[in-house]
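Predict structure. Chain length: 251.
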Amino acid sequence: MSVFSRYALLASVFTLGAAPAAMAQSSGYFIPPSAQQSAPAAHAQPAPAAQAQQAASGQPQMPPVPNLPALAPEAAPPTAVIGVISVPDVMRQSTAAQGVQAIIEQRQAALGKDAQAARTKIQAEQQAIIAEQGKISNAALDAKEQALQQEVATTQTKFQLRNEAIQRSGQEALGKIEAELIAIVRQEAQAHGMNLVLHREQVALNVSAFDITDEAAAELNKLLPKVDVPPSVVTPDMEANPSSPEQDGGQ
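Prediction complete.
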């Protein structure tokens, strides 16, 4: 077996830097519209033909819907006064969010530079060991190969953790912006007499009078024009529970 046939060039090891814009959808305050899954109607009872088809296909049949007693009458909800907002558009207009993205991109660029240096170093070590084929014993060659393989694994983990630390710090900063935005949405809704605010991306048609996106963005820039991004530090819990490349989206 040729030396290093188990790991060709190490480009995939050090491919780093997720798009910072994705972090605006993952801090937990707002659920992005794309994450909404249309669930099947849990209370709809299949028609007999559908039940027969389910049985023929081996699929589990839906149980019959129970007949529950009627509840005591309650007050009807108020008439809906609807507003819409585009959170992604607000974040794009936010000077604080733009500042966070710029800082995260700078940190990722520095990480990418370090990754390139690490890749170059390991490639040089790889070539040096290949050049020793036939000059040293197979046992010595295997030992050097195994040592380099361990170095590759250790370096990969180090860069994954550093990348995760950058993402975490960005999410923490964006979380502060989104927390402020929640308060602003409530404030704008109250000012307009709205009692229901929907994601604009989920609405097929609306008139501009419903849309509070620009107002919310302007208020956000006034109240929170800037936010500090915490240092991107690899913490002990990250080292104890390193994310796999699949969990990090291949980062």
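Summary: Strands lie at 82-85, 196-199.
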